[in-house]
Amino acid sequence: MSPSAFAGSPLLISLDLLVEQGLLLPKEKMGSFSEYTVDYPRVERYKNAILNLAWQRFLNRPNGKTLLAEFAATHSWCVDYGLFLALKQQFRGAPWFAWPMALRQRHVEPLAQAVELHKAHISRTLFEQYIFFTQWRALRQYAADQGISLIGDLPMYVALDSADVWANQEVFFLDKSSGEPTYVAGVPPDYFSATGQRWGNPLYRWETTDPQVRQSLWNWWEQRLQLNFSLVDILRIDHFRGFASYWSIPATEQTALNGTWREGPGLPFFEEMTRRLGDMPIIAEDLGLITPDVESLLRQLGYPGMNVLLFAFDGDPNNNYLPYNIQKNSVVYSGTHDNDTAVGWYLNPEISTLSKQRAKRFANRTDDDAGSFHRDLVHLALASPANLAILPMQDVLGFGNDCRLNTPGTVENNWQWRCAPRFIHDELAAWLYNMTELFGRLPSLKRKDTSDTSSGSLNGL
Predict the structure, then answer these.
(1) 204 DSSP β-pair partners
(2) Which of 229, 246, 337, 346 could join 370 in a cystine, given CB atoms 3.0 to 4.6 angstroms apart?
(3) Selected catalytic residue, list 28, 222, 233, 238
């Protein structure tokens, strides 16, 4: 639900680096915040005020305005984004489809007048994004110098009230008059929700017969993928199954129950994006209801899917997430941001005792100690055949459900957990290193599987 699929969050901007650049004084970045949770409104107010100071100083530099103009020329989306934010402020937070019609429908003259009226606000946004992308490039280079790859997360859908939809209305299922969606995204009932999930994002017009709309849609996706691959080495595409077929819910429905499946862009889309961008290292989030068309698309592309160990212990020997059923060209997770932590799962009274016992037996443990279960699950993940294992920090540390990151279908108390530096120490690092070495997952010990030559494989990691 971000206001932009292209912009970086200003909350990630390093104030220390702005001090090094002379854009802030050390005393100006002083602030006291919790080590354990994020108070987003407070942090946003604090950082916004400080970035205003840095922006004014940046503009007073001889080349400040020139640098922003150059950034705008190579990131054309950012002007639309800056204007979108300015108009949101002007209309007191109202969504773009509630703005006056001339601005809602992006009439040329009123839009040009708005750009002129809000040029300072747009400049401020350009500065924010210029700093973000400059700092991120430095971060990525530092990671590369240490032999570290970065994995990004790409949501398939974008928010209705976003600069992306406002600036590209023709590629979404929207009512031409009101701008509101006619169909919205979600998923049918699954293990996360009995009524499915009605996300409310507008759907792409993949099935359009209008060649101009189709070209605009695919060009927008090319720009989005290109920008993301400039930031990270690998992209995990969330809700990958939507490229094979997607759940279309009439916007008038209050739940996801009465949706229908529609055909996605499939293999031709990825072939065209590969033609335009080259090989794309992608992890396909293939959780939930996976149908034969999704399995076929994954086989054709060779992209690795996901295996979540916390879904493995239901007693079905054919469960795809059981360690012995995991494929080599895949990514194994102890759990994801949508799961409880390993310890939280084990302590949950709603999880059957049999499931917990099975999990312990797979790790060759006979105890019922919840406090060590996170290490049992780490053992299973690292010992699995999957080319890549990803461990949430909460599972490395053995934290409970008070440190859970997200609960699907809820909007309160999510994405607030922080890891205090004192929890990351040499003893923990030594244990994780030894486990990684034991299962041959250190970079120097990994061997390429020559039986899999697909461009989407993660064998090289």
Answers:
(1) 172
(2) 346
(3) 238
Q: Which residues contact 154 (CB under 8 A, 6 or more apart)?
A: 224, 225, 228, 235, 236, 237, 238
CB 171 within 8 A of CB 217: yes
For residue 81, which phi and psi values (nearest 5 degrees)? -65, -45
Whole-number Å distance between alpha carbons of 326 and 334: 13
305, 336 Cβ separation under 8 angstroms: no
Phi-psi region of 32 (alpha: psi -120 to 50; beta: other; left: phi over 0): beta
How far apart CA 101 and CA 99 sit, in angstroms, is: 6
Is 395 one of the annotated active-site residues of the chain? no
pLDDT in tens, 153-176: 999 999 999 999 999 999 999 999
Active site residue 285: yes
Q: Residue 168 in 3-state DSSP?
A: coil
Q: What was the pLDDT predicted at 32?
A: 87
Count CB-CB contacts under 10 A for residue 440: 12
Q: How far apart are CA 126 and CA 68, in angstroms?
A: 6
Q: Which tokens in the block code for residue 321?
A: 């997430």
Q: 265 and 301 in contact (C-beta within 8 Å)? A: no
For the chain, the residue count is 461
Q: Which of 222, 338, 449, 452 is catalytic?
A: 338
For the four alpha carbons of 140, 144, 147 and 151, in that order, the dihedral sign comes to positive
Q: What are phi and psi of 288, to 5 degrees?
A: 85, -155
- Dmax of the chain from CA atoms? 73
Quickly state the pLDDT bin for 30 (edges 50, 70, 90): confident
**Active-site residue (options: 285, 340, 376, 395):** 285
Q: Is 161 a catalytic residue?
A: no
Half-sphere exposure of 171 (CA within 13 A, CB side): 20
The β-bridge relationship of strands 234-238 and 282-284 is parallel
Tokens 């999704």 belong to residue? 294
Domain boundaries, the chain: 1-148
Residues contacting residue 302 through CB under 8 Å, at least 6 positions apart: 329, 452, 454, 455, 456, 457
- Give tens-digit pLDDT for 92-118: 999 999 999 999 999 999 999 999 999
The residue among 190, 405, 402 whose CA lies nearest residue 290 is 190
Its pTM stands at: 0.92
pLDDT per residue as tens digits for the range 210-242? 999 999 999 999 999 999 999 999 999 999 999
Residue 198 in contact with residue 184, Cβ under 8 Å?
A: yes
Long-range contacts of 425-432 (CB under 8 A, 24+ apart): 428/396, 428/397, 432/396
